[in-house]
Amino acid sequence: MTVIQMYDGPNSTSMKLDLGSDNEQTVEAGVMHDVSRRRFLQFAGGIAGAGLIVSSCRKTPPDTQFIGRDDTALMNYLYIVEMVLTAFYTQANNTQYYGLTESELQLLADLRDHQYAHRELLKKILGGNAINKVVVDLSPVTFADRNNTLTNAIFLEDLAVAAYNGVAKHFADTSFVLLTAKMGTVQARHAAYARDILSANTFADSTVVGLNGLDRAMSPQAVMAALAPFIQTKLDYTTLPA
Amino acid sequence: MNFNNILQEIEKADPEVYEKLSGRRHILKSFGSKVALAALPLALGSMFKKAYGKTTDSVISSLQFALELEYFEYNFYHTANNTGSNTTNTLIPAADRAGFLLVENEEKAHINFLRTTIDTLGAVPFTPNYYTGDPITGNPYSPASYDFTAHSTFGTFSDYGSFLDLAIAFEDTGIRAYQGQIPNLLANDNDILTQVLQLSSVEARHASFARLVRRFYNTATFQIGTKPWITTNFPPAVPLQPNYMGEDNTVQRGVDITSLTGYTGTISNSAATEAFDEPMDKATVTSLLAQFKL
């Protein structure tokens, strides 16, 4: 079994793409299920990308991390969401999908850089209460494939919007509400963009906006459940609101 | 002080006031004569507090302001979507029509949602100047209320580029306006805060769409500086610069974002501004939209 670790920048999360044949992968709804093609594309995309480090059989089971209580738990929760998005876009930039246009190239770097800004701000605010970086599992994604990458981007961005909308009412320190709202609407800009370049005029369609014109708001527990396929680190987040 | 007159005035604003006051209309009606005048304010205070919960005037006025903005946006898109329809002079190209119809429909849904919410909270929903319909059930289209060309300053409904510039500015400003109201919603213990966030993220989706369309309009390739997000305080067109003042902020909660670790080095100034939308207060938003109102 070979574990390929992708290098995603000087100070960021390392990611594991397990290409072993015995690896059971969790595949999100709507994501391509053609396993052999996916693995080929992952491999081809990985080789094409810069900064590839191949190590063998390094598998240390990570300890369970407790995310804290109350506002600390909520901010760590958003930090986790942003860690997944940062890792996702870092990889998407490093191993770009085939058919990437000049316009998409420019904005793909923007998407990554915005997530860095969010992630690092949350980390800074959390200070000593910040959890260690989680190991992000990107094996559900075929980065060489445009459709698959964008479908996963949409899934994660729509989820982030719902996370930001749903978390606000739980903050004890209400100064976090405006701060996180300012980030949440930028996630909505991302979501709409990814939707529209995949399929025109779907930026706010009925899959995310209800008949009353409201976007989704999800509880932290529901978001963490949806995010589970992308997180390898064992986390104790029982303190999050259901 | 005539207690029954007060109740009648409230009833005009909120026909369900008696139901909200536990439906004890007769007790209420006899209240005025049986309760000592000095004790009345106290009795009334606790009664209304029970009926309307912790919903304060500031929550209602924030929602009224949001409704005003939604009327504005709906009328803008409704007019655009009906400019030259089915003729060769159609304002909006065929490829984008479904998108702007979706935006129009969602603005209308926002109007209906806010009308219902404000009505439930016991206030009369906002209506624009010269609006003649029912504040709760009437058709929100009100052409007598607006001049979206700002006295021919903009070719709003004759030039697609101008229309897109305004759509971008209105949506971006709408997001800022919603976020400017957040401090008024924090004390509220029901779902209004969440719902306002759910409304504002839809506005952000609309802004992203209009910006993406603008990025590819009237160019052989794409407009490198027009992105789905706001870079520093760049406006879509020079006259709209005031709508973007303060969007170049890079300091969040005392942290300079450009000092944080990015993919390479620290985060760039443009990314630091793009990654956060910025709130705008009601007075500023109102002054910016004034030129488009009649």
Description:
With 242 residues, chain A is α/β, with parallel strands linked by helices. Chain A has one domain (2-236): Ferritin. Helix content of chain A is 49%, strand content 8%. Chain A contains 6 helices and 6 strands; from the N terminus they run E-E-H-E-E-H-H-E-H-H-H-E. In chain A, strands 3-1-2-5 form a 4-stranded mixed sheet, with helices on one face. Chain A is globular and about 45 Å long. Residues 1-61 of chain A have low confidence and may be disordered. By secondary structure, chain B is an all-alpha fold. Chain B has 2 domains: 3-52, no CATH class; 57-234 and 278-292, Ferritin. Chain B has helices at residues 3-13, 17-20, 25-34, 40-52, 57-81, 94-120, 160-185, 192-216, 269-274, 282-289; strands at residues 251-252, 255-256. Chain B has a two-stranded antiparallel sheet. In chain B, strand 1 and strand 2 (255-256) form a beta hairpin. Chain B starts with a helix and ends in a 5-residue tail after the last helix. The model of chain B is unreliable at 17-54 (pLDDT under 50). At the A-B interface, helix 3, helix 4 and helix 5 of A face helix 6, helix 7, helix 8 and helix 9 of B.
- Give the class of chain B from helix and strand content and strand pairing: mainly alpha
The biggest sheet of chain B amounts to:
2 strands, antiparallel
Which CATH architecture of chain A would you pick? Up-down Bundle
Q: Structural class per helix/strand content of chain A?
A: alpha/beta
Shape of chain A: globular
Radius of gyration of chain A: 17 Å
Number of strands of chain A: 6
**What is CATH's topology name of chain A?**
Ferritin
**Low-confidence runs of at least 5 consecutive residues of chain A:** 1-61
Q: Percent of residues of chain A in beta strands?
A: 5-15%
**Number of DSSP helical runs of chain B:** 10
Mean pLDDT across every amino acid position of chain B: 86
Order of helices and strands of chain A: EEHEEHHEHHHE
Distance between the termini of chain B: 39 Å
Share of helical residues of chain A: 40-55%
| Biggest sheet overview of chain A | 4 strands, mixed
* Assembly state (oligomeric): heterodimer
In the predicted model, the low-confidence regions of chain B spanning at least 5 consecutive residues are: 17-54
CATH topology of the largest domain in chain B: Ferritin
Q: If interface size is counted as residues with C-beta under 8 Å from the partner's C-beta, which chains form the largest one? A: A-B, 60 and 64 residues
Name the overall outline of chain B. globular
